[in-house]
Design brief:
Layout: E1 8-12, H1 17-31, E2 36-42, H2 52-66, E3 70-76, H3 85-98, E4 102-106, H4 113-128, E5 145-149, E6 162-165, H5 170-178, H6 181-184, H7 195-210, E7 215-219
Parallel strand pairs: 1-2, 1-4, 2-3, 4-5
Antiparallel strand pairs: 5-7, 6-7
Helix pairs in contact: 1-5, 2-5, 3-4
C-alpha cells in the first residue's frame, strides 16, 4: 500500500541523527498539522551498548514521542554506507513513493563517513527521482528543496542559512533523545554534561542569536525564499 504523500522527509544515516539535529522542528511541524516522515538508512548497529532489537525499540519510543506520520529504514550497512548507484536508486524510489515537498539531509561537512555518504546519496537521489523512462518504483517526482540539519562529529560552529524557533518543544526533544538510552545516556561519564545536554545548549545558543529561547539551525546550498517578511521573528 502506497503511503499518503509527506510534507517533509528527514533522511538520517542512523536512528537518532534526525532527533539530534531537528526533533524540535519536527515536533513544531507536527503541531502545525504537517505530515512528517523519517527514513533511517541503517540500523545503526553494531555499537558498544546496542543491539538491533534494542535499537529498534528505542527508535519506536522516540518515534512515538515525535508523533510523526511515517518512519522507515532502508536497511543499508552501518559503518560502511556508500553512495553507490544501487543505493542512490533505492533512495530515489523512496522519494518517488513518499513524494515529500521538502527533504532534510545531514550537513555536508562531517567527520563521519556514513553522514557524508548519506548527504551524497540524498543529493543524487533527488535528481534521479524525477527521471522518466525508468523502471524505478513510483512515478517521476522532483522534491522542491533540500535543507541540511546539523548532527555532526566535528567541533565546528554551525553556519546556518536559517534557524527555527523550538522554544515550546525543548522538553519533548530531550525526551525523544533520552529514548536512545544505549547511545546517548548510558555511555555518558557521571557528573559531566552528556551529548543531550550539549545539543540542548547549542539550541539555546541559536535561540539567543534569534532572540528566542531555543532554536535549531539549518543550512541551504540555495537561497531560502520567504513569502512575506511576517515570517521573520521580530
Amino acid at each position: 500500500m502506497t503511503p499518503e504523500p509527506l510534507d517533509v522527509l528527514i533522511v538520517a544515516p542512523h536512528p537518532d541523527d534526525a532527533e539530534l539535529g531537528m526533533a524540535g522542528t519536527m515536533l513544531s511541524m507536527v503541531q502545525e498539522g504537517r505530515r512528517v516522515g523519517i527514513l533511517d538508512l541503517t540500523s545503526g548497529e553494531p555499537t558498544p551498548l546496542g543491539s538491533k532489537a534494542r535499537r529498534k525499540q528505542e527508535t519506536e519510543a522516540a518515534t512515538r514521542e515525535l508523533g510523526i506520520a511515517w518512519r522507515g529504514n532502508l536497511g543499508l550497512p552501518n559503518r560502511s554506507l556508500e553512495a553507490t548507484l544501487e543505493n542512490r536508486r533505492a533512495l530515489a524510489e523512496q522519494f518517488r513513493i513518499l513524494r515529500p515537498k521538502v527533504i532534510f539531509a545531514p550537513y555536508w561537512e562531517d567527520a563521519h563517513p556514513d553522514h557524508l555518504a548519506a548527504t551524497e546519496m540524498v543529493e543524487a537521489a533527488k535528481f534521479w527521482a524525477k527521471l522518466g523512462k525508468s523502471d524505478m518504483a513510483g512515478t517521476p517526482f522532483h522534491p522542491a528543496r533540500i535543507l541540511y540539519y546539523f548532527s555532526v562529529h566535528l567541533r565546528i560552529v554551525e553556519r546556518p542559512s536559517v534557524v527555527i524557533d523550538i522554544s515550546g518543544f525543548v522538553d519533548r526533544k530531550r525526551k525523544s533523545l533520552e529514548a536512545y538510552a544505549s547511545q546517548l545516556v548510558e555511555n555518558q561519564p557521571p557528573g559531566e554534561p552528556g551529548v543531550i545536554d550539549r545539543v540542548i545548549e547549542r539550541n539555546r545558543y541559536w535561540g539567543i542569536m534569534a532572540g528566542v529561547g531555543h532554536a535549531e539551525p539549518f543550512a541551504s546550498r540555495e537561497p531560502v525564499g520567504l513569502k512575506s517578511l511576517r515570517d521573520f521573528i521580530p
